[in-house]
Amino acid sequence: MADMSQNPPQLRPDLAPRAQLRDAAPRPDQPTIGMVSLGCPKALVDSERILTRLRAEGYAISPDYTGADAVIVNTCGFLDSAKAESLDAIGEALTENGRVIVTGCLGAEPDYITGAHPRVLAVTGPHQYEQVLDAVHRAVPPKPDPFIDLLPESSVSLTPRHYSYLKISEGCNHKCKFCIIPDMRGRLVSRPAHAVVREAEKLVAAGVRELLVISQDTSAYGVDIKHGEDRGHRAHITDLARDLGSLGAWVRLHYVYPYPHVRDLIPLMADGLVLPYLDIPFQHAHPDTLKRMARPAHGERTLDHIAAWRDICPEIALRSTFIVGYPGETEEEFQTLLDWLDEAQLDRVGCFQYENVAGARANALPDHVPDAVKAERWERFMHKAQAISEAKLAAKVGQVMQVIVDDVDSDGIATCRTKADAPEIDGNLFIDEGAGGLTPGDIVTVEVDEAGEYDLWGKLHAPS
């Protein structure tokens, strides 16, 4: 039986899957740029766009420091621990390569970076593609081959061929006190719907079987452009989900804020147009904690929403993230969160212990929770979440369901995901017999025959 390998309790739910680069070997004398991509899937998409532009200009792409003429480090600034990881990655790139260009969320604080690493060649902020390209040109001038580089090429992908992130907007209009993302990435800026659909069409035509829709606030998509319609596509999340669902790939929605109009998405899930999966960062359940967070949601109202969604689409899988140990969180407030989790019965759960982040308004709140208490509450929270996950998965034994194949190892064991599982942040379904003929991206039908705390095992299902 394969070991459970996904969704361990310590996994940070803000991280993208590990970047995978599939690029041809450089030709002689071709300038080569390495890329280190940190942080969330939105940052991974930024890295893909930068590399796509560079490859079109004649650069070869390296998946690491080896053989690169310079290295781009796309940083994360979500938490102080993420900032420390970014500084470490910059330091490693300087040691291994010596010529480093920094971009991404932490790039919004250039003095912070240059104070630690004064040798970096340039620092740019998030989604500043042109500035990154300018810095690369200065460091490593391009040498395009007009017979090769001017030919249209597909985009550089940092994910496996069979799934891709689809970013529909930048920025966020919320003012959550624990978050500095709006300060780094700005207010909501939605992409035109026709541009999103066109990108999705190209991805599906290139063999992508699953589209993972991402943004900072997916359910607010189109608010800034008044849900305008252009070329037959309206910039509203319900319309966009319907358009994407018509392309024939799995469509998975991430970072959906629980606005009332989210209920309009659920019939699309019941009808099979988009996956019955919602990734909603509830953050907490006690009204006083949510108020201190500057989150307008309310735990009891959210439970009503969840019940209504399940009435419409009983197979819907709900994933969320929470913060424990937020400043002022009392034992009573934390217990309310545990009781809420018991009632909500969420399928997939991630959890952060609260951290101060430089520039966040939550830092100034009174009654910060001691680290030992935060850790103890996190353990209790994850213990309950794990028990819920184990019970819900046990109920799936005997069910027949579709899964998408992510990998088949040398022993013929297939690592797959159900419709309830996003890559790397959720669980897996393993097929350990008869899977040798499968390839990544195959969508097959299995019968579940065993369940663990986070993962399932099954066998290929033969139609009767």
Automatic annotation (TrEMBL):
Keywords: 4Fe-4S, Cytoplasm, Iron, Iron-sulfur, Metal-binding, Ribonucleoprotein, Ribosomal protein, S-adenosyl-L-methionine, Transferase
A biological-process GO annotation: tRNA modification
Top enzyme category: transferase
Annotated ranges, domain Radical SAM core: 158-391
CDD domains reported for this sequence: Radical_SAM (cd01335)
Alphabetized SUPFAM superfamilies for the sequence: Radical SAM enzymes
Cofactor requirement: [4Fe-4S] cluster
Listed Gene3D superfamilies: Methylthiotransferase, N-terminal domain, Nucleic acid-binding proteins, tm_1862 like domain
E.C. code: 2.8.4.4
A molecular function GO annotation: aspartic acid methylthiotransferase activity
Pfam families linked: Radical_SAM (PF04055), TRAM_2 (PF18693), UPF0004 (PF00919)
MTTase N-terminal domain ranges (all copies): 31-141
GO annotation, cellular component aspect: cytosol; ribosome
Entry keyword annotation includes Iron-sulfur: yes
Family: Belongs to the methylthiotransferase family. RimO subfamily.
Protein name: Ribosomal protein uS12 methylthiotransferase RimO
Lineage, top ranks: Bacteria, Pseudomonadati, Pseudomonadota, Alphaproteobacteria, Rhodobacterales
Gene encoding the protein: rimO
